[in-house]
Amino acid sequence: KFMCVSQSLKSSIVKLTNTTKPIDVLPNIIDSKFRYKPCVEKADFIFFSAGNFVKGKAFDVLIKAFIKAFSNEENVKLLIAGDGPEKPSFQKLITNNSREDQIKLLGRLDRDTMIKNYELCDCFVLASRRETFGIVYREAMAIGRPVISTRNGGIEEGWEDNYGLLTQIDHIGQLIRALRDMRDNINC
Q1: Residue 139: which H helix or E strand, with range?
Q2: Least crowded by CB within 10 Å, which of 25, 40, 65, 126?
Q3: Residue 130 CB: number of other CB atoms within 10 A?
Q4: In 16-95, where do the E strands start and end?
Q5: Tens digit of pLDDT for each residue in 135-175?
Q6: Residue 127 to residues 130, 149, 153: CA-CA distances in angstroms?
Q7: Separation CA 9–CA 156 (nearest Å)
Q8: Cα dist from 11 to 6, 24, 25, 111, whole Å
Q9: pTM
Q10: Ramachandran class of 100: left when φ > 0, alpha when ψ lies in -120 to 50, beta otherwise
Q11: Is 134 left (phi over 0), alpha (psi -120 to 50) or beta?
Q12: CB of 93 closer than 8 Å to CB of 63
């Protein structure tokens, strides 16, 4: 048997290999540690994001959109978990825009610390250019947090509008509107 985690990945494999053999889709499993936790009101509105610091995850787009959306709102924060080759350019973008108090790069986090950050946040956001499944989105949803995502493949399978907001890939204007809309309209 050949199995993959999403229809999006299956389509890519078929396109790349021209295989006619059957491929089954079996989605990833979410660890039972990821359980619903009610959102708690606090002074700051917190967006949380996580992923490898590579170009495909589009953290540069997220950081630019966040800066434009909330440059005068110190009580809105963006926490980003992850590490990788793009980290210096992300840090430079944050520093050059004097947003060090508002945007934090947390480094690579263990599972329990990830869960704490999902619980702490008001919304999970990731502007990834391509996902085969999107485990971090689903972990956030398992905790009970809305998500902002791009139409990147894997996240769209099984998507319902009450999960959050979808934007076009690399569309900073749509991402700015989604960030503001989530901050303005979320009921914690």
Answers
A1: helix 135-143
A2: 40
A3: 16
A4: 24-25, 45-50, 76-81
A5: 898 899 999 999 999 998 778 777 888 899 999 999 999 99
A6: 9, 5, 12
A7: 12
A8: 9, 11, 11, 30
A9: 0.88
A10: alpha
A11: left
A12: yes
- The closest of 155, 88, 86, 157 to 124, measured between CA atoms, is 155
| CA Rg value for the chain | 17
Contact 136, 117 (CB under 8 A): no
DSSP H or E run through 143? helix 135-143
Residue 31, classed as helix, strand or coil, is coil
> Do the Cβ atoms of 181 and 173 come closer than 8 Å?
no
H or E element in which residue 147 lies: strand 147-150
- Which tens digits make up the pLDDT trace of 114-125? 999 999 999 999
